[in-house]
Amino acid sequence: IVYNNNQSMIKGGFWDGRLEINNFNLEKTNDITLQVQTIFNPDLSPITSVAYSVKDKFFFCGSKDGNLYMYKLNEYKMEFKKGLYLFDDEITSISINDNLNMFCLSSKGGFINLHILPSCDLVRTIYLNKNPNNNNNNIVENKLFANNIFLSNFPLPCITAYINSKKTFISYTINGKLINEIKECDNSYKLKDPIIYTNHSFQDIL
Fold this sequence. Notes:
This protein is an all-beta fold. 0% of the residues lie in helices and 50% in strands. The strands form five sheets. It has a four-stranded antiparallel beta sheet with strand order 1-2-3-4, with no helix packed on it. It is globular and about 45 Å long.
């Protein structure tokens, strides 16, 4: 994640669970000096997903062990705030919406959690492996999980999940009600790094 007016960058994904903060200082001579700060994640598990709240300057990182860690950022320092032990498996994606004061995250077990900012109180859990057409909510044999999730606030507050294995978008209201399911073309590529941007009508567009 790049922040601080493109002068700082945070990297995860290292085998020893560390986070690296790279601060780029552009001197008057146009020479760039690089300062590197290393912080070790409390569970020493590799960081698998990251997200940043621009408004509140909170940084979230999810680990391979299913834990979520919250840090407070300033220009050059990162202060540990809290750890949440949420899942038994890897956190695959985190999405923050500053307008809703909420964030959501997904795990390889097929769960999507919705939380409040900055308290991190749990609002809702959605389980992708429940069949909406089956009243008994039987669990499917091959577990589905969201590779990417997106929390949008306009025109409708909703959570959208992208599932690589099905090449499918699934969207829910923040109350957990299924809105729609859209399958891609069979010959389409897997999405790597999709983003949400706001159009001229202030609508969130994937």
